[in-house]
Amino acid sequence: SSIPGPLQGDAEVVCVCVCVRSRMQSVAEQGHMALLGHSLAAYMSVLDRERLRRLTTRIVSDTTLWLCRLFRYENASACFHEDDRDGLVKVSRLVLHARYEDYACEGFAVLSPRQPVIYQSASCRPGLGQHLCSQLGLPLSSLCTVPCNTVFGSQHQMDVALLEKLIREDSEAGRLPLLLIANAGTPGAGHTDKLGRLRELCDQYSLWLHVEGVNLATLALGQATSVVTAATRSDSLTLTPGQWLGLPAVTAVTLYRHEDPALSLAAGLTSSQPVEKLRALPLWLSLQYLGHNGIVQKITHATALVSGAREPDPVEDELSSPVVLFKFSQDMSAGKSLWPGLGEQLARLVPASGVDVVELEDEGTCVRFSPLLTAAVLGTQQQDVEALVERLAELLPVMNATVALRAEFREEARRHAPSLCYVEELSWPGLGVVRYEPEAEGMDEGRRKQELQKIQAELLKKLQELDSDIVFSAGPEFGPEEDCIFVGMVSEDVDVPELVLTIASLGREIEESGRLLENMTEVVRKGILEAEQQLQQASMDKLMEEGLLRQIPVVGSMLNWFSPVQSSIRGRTFNLAAGSLDSTDATYATKAQAGRPSFQDTPPSSSKKLPGQRLFRRSGTSLDSASETGSVGHAEDPTPHAPAEPAEPAEPDTARPDQSGVSPEQQEQEEQSPR
Known about the structure:
This protein is of the alpha/beta class. Among the domains are: 30-295, Aspartate Aminotransferase, domain 2 (3-Layer(aba) Sandwich), CATH 3.40.640; 303-400. The chain contains 22 helices and 16 strands. The chain has helices at residues 29-44, 49-70, 86-99, 103-106, 128-136, 160-172, 195-205, 226-229, 241-245, 261-267, 274-277, 281-308, 332-335, 338-349, 371-378, 382-415, 445-464, 496-546, 553-562, 585-590, 621-635, 664-672, and strands at 77-81, 116-121, 143-146, 176-183, 208-212, 236-239, 252-256, 324-327, 356-360, 364-369, 420-423, 432-436, 472-473, 485-487, 572-575, 580-583. The strands form 4 sheets. It has a 7-stranded mixed beta sheet, with helices on both faces. A hairpin with a 4-residue loop joins strand 15 and strand 16 (580-583). The chain is elongated and about 135 Å long.
């Protein structure tokens, strides 16, 4: 059904079925308004050109005015774009037109005498500078990445002193400092650069200052910080109201200040086509639906959620960023691989929290909670934040115990080599990874791999059926290691030697049972052939012993009645375990199968597991002492025993029948009878 057929000649009713395998995000009422705007834009595009021009001009001017007043960026123009990086690309093209007078006529030839230089922070979005140079046709040598602070201030802020030094060196080398990209909320930690100091530096060296980041949303609040408020003095900034307000498929907006409309048109910031201006219609409808109070309430709610998530110790945040980061305080070499797993578990346990895992250069792997980017879309509430903090407090002790026991698990697994192989998988957020290695003598590579997959699948199934709190899995779906047992996080009271021994023992049991089943067919076939041969030989012996007349139906019955014959032929039993044919004499003599142990003789299985205790758990000292005390109490009974009564005299043996139930006369008669 997925293969498209030929296009039908006549019109027909089309039914579109969309299968969504993953969980869909809930679309609020303002989201439906945004989706409605896309449909209206398609209908409005068929209006006559003059009416469409007037309508789109009104939509763009209204939306621009509302955004400028809402985010304190007065006297600016707006560019609406689908990709949130396109606004920066068009602004950079505008600066090229403004700084190189003949750029519109001669193009890139005018850039050769003085190569333009674009500066960005090391904390900028990954790949932003490369995308910018690719779209502008500039070499990567035109991109200068400024390191962040290493001594004073936040380690996620641009080093202003080093930036000034780089600008001065480029100017002295004959290059043209063109544009500076600053952050009002870095993608990782949410920290804001020193925008006031950067503004002064840009004025001194005639650079265009562009600001972007999630913290720009707080400009709509009445109590915005002075660090973020300094962004209103920039030359341009990019807003993403769709993420902040939970509006699906809404364009990003770049606000900029420039007085030459011709250069804005040449850079692509404005368009003379009315249809392209309809991009602002979904945002225009959504802003009116929410109203000023509704917009401020959503941003206020998102920033208020941060205070509830700061109960554990977050990464240092001197700028009160609306982003909370949690990192592992132990040795990063040991806990680094577990932290992504913890973030994934938190996201699965509390999906409305919107937490994710980020990799920072200085802090390493962290769990990020950024409600400004997720709260409006996921509908995050205060109880979700409380649940996040509770789950985090529950998982941290387990994570600490897992990190502490990983070395012991590795050593125990290596002790059981070669049957058990320890796999070094640093990215696995659990106790460790092992693989059971069956004996592969006489097997080719294909047969060995097939046997390995079979044993690993059966071993994983048996481990998952155990009464244990430990999670056993086959690992990530697209992981590098295959046919392995991935052991999840464990608590501090887990018995690692018992755990590894159980894995090795179950694997050996599965391997031996598999070989027994493989050999069973051959054993049974040989046993059947041997039984047929013995039955044929027994028939021939019976014929030679009884004679030919006794084989005739009527004559044989008469002869057997007058002169009974005691046959010397014995039955046979087939032992599957030994693969051999045995006589049934012992079976009829003892009334039980030969070699089968009596149930009374089977020793009771001893188990170290106490009542109510799950597998792989170390028992406490108090429980052990209580168990030992109980066993001693049962061994020595303080109650005095009554004296034994004298036994009655036994009767003569002649008056008592034999224990086998057969009288002496019958035994004597049987001994005299011919066999």
